[in-house]
Amino acid sequence: MHNIQHSVRENTCEMETEEYISFMRELAEWATSQADMADYAETPENYD
Length: 48
Known about the structure:
By secondary structure, this protein is mainly α.
């Protein structure tokens, strides 16, 4: 996780505030959808 945090800081350090906010919100939405898909894939009712 530390590597990801470092990479985000490194790649966003030159962004303006509004651009940074938009990027972080999009990243959060993506991360949430990835976690939801992983959670859904592992629920017992999805096993055949």
